[in-house]
Every structure is written in C-alpha cells, then in structure tokens.
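Quick question: what would this complex look like in 3D?
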Amino acid sequence: MSKIKADHNKPETVKMPMRGGRGGGPGGMHGMGMPVEKPKDFKGAFKKLLNYLKPRKARLIVVFFLAALSTVFAIFSPKVMGRAITRLFEGIMMKMQGVPGASIDFTYIIQILLILAGLYLFSALFSFLMQYIMASVAQNTVYEMRKDVKEKLTRLPLKFFDTHSHGDVLSRMTNDIDLISTTLQQSLAQVITSVVSLIGIIIMMLTISPLLTLVTVLTLPLSFIAVKAIAKRSQKYFAEQQKILGEVNGHIEEMYTGHREVKAFNREKESVLIFDKKNKELYEAGWKAQFVSGIIMPIMMFISNIGYVIICVVGGIFVTKRLIEIGDIQAFIQYSRQFNQPIQQTANIANLLQSTIAAAERVFEILETEEEISDPESPVVITNPKGEVIIEHVDFQYKSDIPLITNMNIAVKAGQSVAIVGPTGAGKTTLVNLLMRFYELQAGKISVDGVDITKMQRGDLRNIFGMVLQDTWLFKGTIRENIAYGKNGATEDEIIAVAKAAHADHFIRTLPDGYETVLNEEASNISQGQKQLLTIARAFLSNPSILILDEATSSVDTRTELIIQKAMGALMKGRTNFIIAHRLSTIRDADTILVMNEGNIIEQGTHQQLLDADGFYADLYNSQFVGEDAV
Amino acid sequence: MLKLLKNLTPYTLSILLISILTFIRAISELYLPTLMADIVDVGIVTSDIPYIWNTGLIMLLITAGGVVCAIIARLFSAKASVGFSRDIRKKVFHKVESFSLNEFDEIGTSSMITRTTNDINQVQQAVIMMLSMLIYAPMMAIGGVVMAVSKDPPLSIVLVVVVPVIILIVSIVATKGLPLFKQIQTKIDGLNMVLRESLIGVRVIRAFNKTAHEKKRFDKASRELADTAIKVNKLMAVMMPLMMLLFNFTTIAIIWFGGIRIDEGAMQIGDLMAFIQYIMRIMFALMMLTMMFIMIPRAAVSAVRINRILEKEPDIKDPENPKSTTDQKGRIEYRNVSFSYHGAEEPAVSNITFTAGPGEVTAIIGGTGSGKSTLINLLPRFYDVHEGSILVDGVDIRDMSQEKLREKIGLVPQKSVLFSGSVTDNIRFGARQASIEEVKHAAKISQAGKFVGEMEKGYDSEITQGGTNVSGGQKQRLAIARAVAKRPEIYLFDDSFSALDFKTDSALRSALKNETKNAAVLIISQRVSTVMHADNIIVMDDGRIEAQGTHEELLKTCSIYNEIANSQLAGEEPA
C-alpha cells in the first residue's frame, strides 16, 4: 500500500498552537517573564509590516503627533503643579515667620491652576483623539490583512492546502493577526509615548535639579538587573510548565478522542492515573512559573519606592539647603512614578514587538507562497460542452523526486463511463486533481472537447465538471442552502427534484425541520450516508457534462448504494462519467475500466475483456469471493 | 463563576493569609506619603536633617516589609490558583472518564477537550488576577480614602463628589463595553468557522466555482469583527482619558481647597502633598479594578462551560450490588430492545430480539441509519436501552458492573482510535498481561504481523497519537489485534473490515475462525461475501429487524437481502 496521498488521508487534527491566547484586553497585562517567540528575520518582516501601514501613513503620523503632544502636556503638569505648591509653602512659611502682610498668593495660584487645567484638558483630548483614530487604523489594517490572506488563499494551488494543516492556517489567520491588531492598537502609540515620556521626564527633572535627577536615575540599572534576573528564571519555569501542559493536554485529547476504546477496554483507571500524575507535575511547574513571574511587579514597585524614599530624603535635605523648592519634591515624586512606567512598558513592548513580528512573519509566509499559474488572458470558452476527454503523454508527480504518473494516455468519448479501479493510493484521486486542474502537469496535456485545459479559465473548466468527493463537504447552513450550492439561483422545484433524484428527499422530509434543517458545523447531525446523498444532490443540480464520482458510495452502505446506483444510472446518461470506487459491482456497467496501480494505468478495457485477460483486475475481482471457509 | 469558585474552599487559609499580607502591604504603601508629609512638615520646616534621614530609613524599612509581604502573598496565591486549577482539571477529567457516549454526543468531543484545557487555563488566569489585584486594588482604594480622610476630613468632601462620578462612568462603560467584548468573541468564532469551512471544502468550492461567494462570506465576517473591535476600542478611547482627566481635575480642586485650608492654618503643606498622592493611588487602584471587569466576564464564560461538565451526571452508572455472571460464556440475548438517541423523535432501534451463543457468528446487514451500529453500541453499555433488556451470559447487563461486562467484550469500532505508544502497547491495551508471544499471535491473526515486522523497530515502533503514522487499513488491523489479544467471550466487529482489501479481509476471517471457536461473534458488514457464511444474518431496516436467518434462507424469504446479494454477487453463482 503506497502512501502517495498520505496528506489527503490524514484525519483532521486541528491543533491550535497555544501561543498564550488572545492579547490580554485593553491596556494588556502582557505577562513579563514569559518566553518570547523570536522572528526569523526581524528586519524583513518588520519592513513588510510597515508596508501594510503605508496607506495609513498620514493618519499614523497624526496619531504619533497626537501621542507626542499628549505626553508633552502631561509631562509639563507636575512641574507646574509643583510651582503652585511652592507658592503655597512660601506664603505659609512667611506667615509663620510673622512677616507682616504675608499671605498666600491666591491670584498666582489660580493662574497656575488654570494653566494646569488647560494642560490636563489638552493632554486628555489628544490622548482621546489618538486612541480614537488608532482604533480604526489598527482594525482596518488587520482587516485588510485578513482580506489579503483570504484572497491569497483563493489563488493558492491545492498543493498548499494538502500540505498545510488547517489548524496552522487558521491559527495564522486568527491568533497571529489578532496579536498584530492588539499590538497596533495598544503598543504602537505606546512606543511614542514611552520614548517621549522618557526624554521629556529627564529633561524636566534636569531643569529642576540635575543632582536629584542623577540620584533618581540611579535606581534604573537596579530595575533592569532585577527584571532581567527574574525574567530569566521565570522563562525557564514557563518553558517547563508549557512542556508539561502540552503533555497534559495531549493526554486529555487522546483519551477523549478514544473514549469509546477507553471504555470498551476498561482503561479508565489507567487513564486517570496517568492524568493525575501529570496533573500533579503541572501543578509543581505551574506554581513556580506563576510565583516567579508574579514577583516582578512587587519588586518593580519596591525599586520604585526606593526611588521615592530617595527623593523624599535627598529632596528634603536639598530644600532645607535651598537647592530646590518644596513643590519640586512633589513634581519629582510624580516624575519618578511616571518614569518607571515607560521603562516597564518599553521592556514589555520589546517583547511584544518580537512576538508580533514573529506572528507577522507567519502571515507573510502565506502571502508569499507561490500562486497558481494565472488563467490565460484570452481563454477559450466551450459553449456547449460535450464531455470528450483526452489525456496525452501526461507526466505528474507530487514530490519532485518521486515520479507518480508517467506517460499516461486515455481517450474518453463524450457520454462514456469510465471506471477507475485500483488499490488504495493507486493515484485515483490524482486523476481528479489533474482533470479539474487542481494540480499542474509536469508534461503532456489534457484536453476537453479538443481544448487544452490550460487554455481555459479554471472556472469555466470546472463548470463542465461535477463531482462527489470522498470527503463530503457541507457547510453550516440549511439543507436547502447546501443543495442549492450547486447552482446559482436554483429554484425550489429544482432543489426538490435533485433531492428526489439522489434519494435524499425522503430522509430530509423525516427530519424535524425538513429542508430547513440546519446542519451543524461538523454536519454531525445527519449520518455519513445522508451527507453523501446531499452532496450527490448538489452535484446533480449543477448539471455538469462530466461527472467525477470519487468513491461517492464508499461510506454508504450497500442498500443505499443500490438505490443511489439506480438514480445515478439515469442521471449519468448523456454525460461523461469518471467513477472511482472500491466496489467492483458499482463499476461493472462502465464502458471502459482503467486499472491503476502505483499511479499508472496498467490495464484498460471492459469488465469482460479484463476478466478474460486474467490480469491484475481479474485477480482483484476474484478475491472478493475467496474465503468460502472464512468466518 | 461563583459556583466554580467554591472549589477555592480548600484554600481558605491561604486566601486569608494572602488577604492579611496584602493588607499589610497596602498599609505599608499607604503609609509612605504620610511619612513624606512628616519629612516636609517637620524635617523641612524645621530644617531638621537627622529627622529627614531617620524618617527616610523608616520609609525604606516599611517598603521593604511591604515587598516581603507581597512576595509571600504571591507565593500563596500562585500555589492557591494553580492548585485550584489542578483540582478543577482533576474533577473534570475524572468526571469525563465516567461519562457514557451519550454525554460525548451531547457536548461534543472537541468541546470537551477545550473545556478541560483552555477553559480551565482561562479560569486559572482569572483566579491569579483575583488573588492579587482583586484583593489589592480595593484595599488600596479604600485605604487611600481612609488615609485621605485622616489627613484632612473637610478636604475629603472633594472625594465624596468625585468617587461616585467615577463609579458612574465605569459602570456606564462596563454595561456598554461588556456586551461588546462578548460580541468580539462571537465574531472571532464566526470568522474561524467560515475560514475552517473554506479550508476543508477547498476542492468543492473550486469545483463549484464558489470562490467569490466564499470570499464574500469571509469578508462579511471579517468586516463585522473589525467594526466591533473598532467600537470597543473607541469606547476605551473615551473612557481612559476621561478617567484621567477627572482625577487630574480632582487634584486641582484639592490644591485649591487645600490651599484655602492651609491659609486658615487648618492643614499643613506636607499633608496636602500626601493627599494628592493618595488621590493618585486611589485612581491607580480603580483603573486596575476596571481591568478586572474586562477579564472576569471572559473567565465567567469558561466557568459556565466547565460547570456544565461538572454538573452532568453520567447516564450510565454501576448497580449498587452488581450481580456476578453464571458459568455460561459467550451468550448474548436481546429481548425487545428499543433505544432512541438523545433528542431524537424516532427510535434508532426498536423491538430487537435475537440470541447468539458461543461459537456462533451473527452478521448484521442493512441500510444507512438502519441502526446496525446502534445495536452493537448497546451491548458494552455505551448507551442504555430504553425498553427491553440485553442479557449477557444470562444476566441483564444493567445488573453487572461495567468493568465486568466490558471485560467480556472485544470491540473493533468502525473508526478505530489508536493511542500513542508502541505497537505492543496498543495491542496490549485491553490485555495488560499479554506476553510478547500472545501479542505477536494476535497481530498475526489480524494480518498485522507482516507490516509490523516491516516497520523499523517492529513491535517497539512508536504509534503517534491517533495512529496518524499508519494507514487506515493498518490501523484497522491493529485494532483487531487489540481485540483479539484480549481473548474476549464476545467479539464485536462494527464494519471493521471495510478498510481492508478483499484479499486481506478473507485471510483475516479465515485466521479468526480458530480464535473465535468458543466466543460469540457479532459482525456488521456491507459486503455480502463477509456475511454470507454467518450462522445467523440479521437484516436491519429502519431500526427494525426485517428478517433473520441463514444466507440461503434469506435469499428465499427476504427481498431486501436478495437485492443486495444480487447486486454484489451477480455473475457468480449465489452460493
């Protein structure tokens, strides 16, 4: 049993990589000390991301400008407030010292307070405008990005979908883009405000007292060293926690998916035992990770408080020495508080930016995947397709080093039925991939009604074909909508007619909501056989000239298969049919049988001819009835 | 959410300690401005430098004490919150392992997985936040108010005006914002669904030329998400600056009224400065609280989902006094059995009566939805019959313990699940004590011996989770070996041979024949060639037994069977 189309056969395992979940709400508490994912090519991905923002350049500049303004206004206020306090202090001191006529200069204070009110007002206004504009800038950017990825996906060859897990693509589209949006929304402007704050605050502090500034800034390296040391440890614990969490989740997933087996083989006790052990390990690693990362905040607060005490003490001494004013202490206290914030933020942003760029990189990876060969500029249109198919000297391979099909030649006349027979993985699905141009040939050509299929638009080509695939695909919606998918603007009568033809009408009517029954996401509320019937109805509605039945009946039981066979017989009339099936009884009526093995057609002829030839087919056919003495 | 939080009860002591420690920390934090006020009012006013130094030293000690408390509190909260999630995870997992297939049908396997993994993590995050922020922030806010009032009660009237206004703003934003946050989650789910569908159905979409249609569907979902996100962020854009502005204006008011109080000699300058700092701390605490309001609803959704599992009682329970079976072995009897799936109007099977004994092969054939698999699933009590009864070895299966019952059964389901581990581990899944010879023997019978031998490490080869590294046919053969190794009294084959080609199918059945000499065998199949030699063939139609008998009998009496047989055996002599 060769594994040519292993990728198609793989059961759907959608695994969402746990990338720390959705960026944590507005103001994001981005866990410091968690491991950061690093991009492969920071510069490259960063540039591409910038390109995305280009159309919004003007508004971004406005945002940055507003961010800077808002910060500048905010930075001025402590110093201004300090003046009011200084003046209050002076007034009261003079009063205490009994200076005649001394009083607090309220007119001056009012002036200061009015200025202060203005500063606050403008700062808030600018901050509001900035965030307001940024909301649509960020969200529309990622909206565009999602749109681009989606459009790109429609232009990617089937090969991409066969080689990438759905979970991976989904995660790039949601988790990764979500992270980009959060970063744009919250952190882009923060970069500006943080930088402006840092510089602004240092300048303001310097204008008040260079010496006190120096003393305050001394706590900075302390913060850095502390955070770095803790973060390093915390990352280690987080990595451990993540590893065990992966094991625990793996065990849960495995046991739940195999619940029937676990029950049938009395494995509950073992399963629970393993779980309990891993769950305990997770606790051990988990609390350490939480604890170590959790102490970053208090330690930062502590260092910030040390700064506060230094300012109080040194500032207080300076005031007594008349080096600074009393209000300056108040201003310094505020500055030092504000000072710590941007430093923490910058540390966060640096991490966040890295993981954002890594996320962007994954998105761009999709956007840069090689596309399908585009449709010809002046395509040939077949107005009344008859359904003649000629395959000439076709070479094809999925992987460049393993040739799969070599020099395939088939000629099918309009209205003929072709049965394709062979062991699993013999390349039957490959034929569908090639006929409908889901994959490109390496050599040779396929023509429909004498037209090379590469000279046609893919859409036009595929309109000629109708198919019922091995994996039934239905979407969340009513049964009516699902059948109507086969034809734009299908009428009620048409839908019911094809449902009847596909013997689906009966079971549909027995459902509580009939044609309005909503299929759920996995369409698990109807049986596999019923799903098949719906896809068959859908295929018939599209009224194709060439029908491809890809194991259409393989998961329908024999009796239903029998009914379908009858209906098909009628509907297959006047069409060219390619039937792919395991069941030899289904294909006996075919005009030609193609026996495929390892990608090649090894035999070709009618049922009787092939039996007479006593080759591979005859062997395959006869094996159905061996085992007289079997169970 | 609250219901789930009851699971924090074992951590009451920890939480109490955390609260006390956090309280001490809050006090230490709040005491600093007061000491600063002393530096100003005593140290600076009287130019008493040693006093300033001393006070500074006290401040350092207090803040150091605060940080020690904070770190210890963190230790307790980390242990409590992670312990809490460990307990919940354990409870949920144990519960789920006790579920019958009914509960799985109802909730869905993937949803069960998310509930046990992601949802619990979400709740853990929320609990961590609660044990730190939710305790700390109100303490700081209330403590800040208390300290402010103690500094100068009349000036605190300003707070009486401001605080309600802030609470009002927060609650307005919360009531407007929370539904939006929930909406975002729904929109993301919607977008995910559309995308997932288009990924799975890519061939169909392209075959039907529906690319444009899918693009439109996606674009609609994507636009909706973007619009909702914009709305939420615009709301936040109003709220945050507004809160800041309010507080800043409060500070201005305090300086003004404080100035007047100082002028009257009723207050000192240092107290005014301390007052301003208290206002800032109150503001900071309230901001943190607002953030909690955004986090908690998200966790609450998870909590509800987890609770649904915890509150569910498994449909099928062991009897209190399980009966032991008689000496009979491999005897099955269905007596007027009827069963309908949860929420279904029509019974899936009704009025099923048949018997099977040791050494007998019973085959079941019938149309889609005719109830073949249901019939078999009732035997190991994956579901319980609604009417009638099933007897195994003469005892009603509901009177046996599930373990004893399932010990007797070797099941090969339609779609087998293999587990991560070696080939041997998988074959030993039901027969833990099986020797390596027995394992090999089982593999040989199931026609798995050859390909296992060809694998790189033979029987020690690792099977990946879900058996993704073996083909469908190989998986099925290993699943059969797994059942054979168990040496059960009853074999259940639920269309287990469909993934095998005809040659392997017949070789396997030949080999099995010896193994099953003393066992009852139930086979569901769609191939007449598989069922024709059975001792008893049951033809199912629409949940009922249409006919039963041997191949020859049925060919004569049953039109449905005749039809099936003819279609498959045409051209051959119907034996």
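Answer marked as accepted. Residues 33-209+324-367 of chain A form a domain with the ABC transporter transmembrane region fold fold (CATH 1.20.1560.10).
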